[in-house]
Design goal:
With 209 residues, the chain is of the alpha/beta class. The chain has a single domain, classed as Glycerol-3-phosphate (1)-acyltransferase, CATH 3.40.1130.10. It is 37% helix and 15% strand. It has seven helices and seven strands. The chain has a seven-stranded mixed β-sheet with strand order 1-7-6-2-5-3-4, with helices on both faces. Helix 3 links the parallel strand 3 and strand 4. Helix 4 crosses helix 5. The chain is globular. The termini are far apart. The relative contact order is 0.19. The model has no long low-confidence stretch (mean pLDDT 88).
């Protein structure tokens, strides 16, 4: 069911968006890793999952999506799982770790937690600590609006340099902060690499800390 649904989604994306451009394919790992991506559009997780095929990638998604009829069923079939973005639970962290270590799938995560924030929240580095998986930062520059979609403006996805698991780290609060900074720095570098003039505008009434 996973591949059937994704091939249907791929057809829809190609029809309305066209093929996304990809930079940094050499940084796509052949073993399960944490793909930590920017989040600017509903299409971001689909871009990431499709580009990583035939590898399987499980995405974290906000809880409310799983309560929507049909959509909730579809995203469960492609291994997405819910997370409370305000208060992630230990159960969610355990599930994320299991996906990497036991299920041998990639984990897709949006460190900002929302399309309406650019502030990286803690959690990605903690999952690395438990899973011992590398982190690959990913910058996605999707079409910004309906006009860009209708005119088939190319979206882009760029895979950055891996942040490897380091057994010599204590993975304490300071280490977590340093890893978050590395992720942010790579987001900035990748955005400039795709399009140095790209700006993601968040409406004032939508901004979240």
């Amino acid at each position: 069911m996973y591949y059937i649904i994704l091939h249907i989604l791929k057809f829809i994306i190609l029809l309305f968006h066209g093929q996304p451009g990809v930079i940094g394919r050499k940084n796509i790992s052949d073993r399960p890793v944490i793909y930590a991506a920017t989040h600017r559009s509903w299409i971001d997780p689909i871009y990431l999952i499709l580009v990583l095929l035939p590898q399987k990638t499980a995405m974290m998604g906000k809880e409310s999506l799983f309560k929507i009829p049909i959509i909730g069923w579809i995203i469960k079939q492609i291994h997405a799982f819910p997370v409370n973005r305000e208060k992630p639970t230990t159960r969610t962290i355990r599930q994320a770790t299991k996906i990497l270590t036991e299920d041998q799938m990639n984990l897709g995560i949006f460190p900002t937690g929302s399309r309406y924030s650019t502030q990286i929240k803690s959690g990605t580095a903690f999952i690395q600590k438990l899973s011992k998986a590398d982190i690959v930062p990913v910058a996605i520059q999707p079409p910004k609006n309906l006009w860009q979609v209708l005119t088939h403006q190319t979206g882009w996805i760029a895979f950055g340099d891996p942040i490897p698991y380091n057994s010599n780290l204590a993975y304490n609060k300071e280490d977590f902060a340093n890893i978050d900074q590395q992720i942010q720095a790579e987001f900035d570098r990748l955005d400039a690499l795709i399009n140095p003039n790209y700006q993601y505008h968040i409406p004032e009434d939508k901004r979240r800390d």
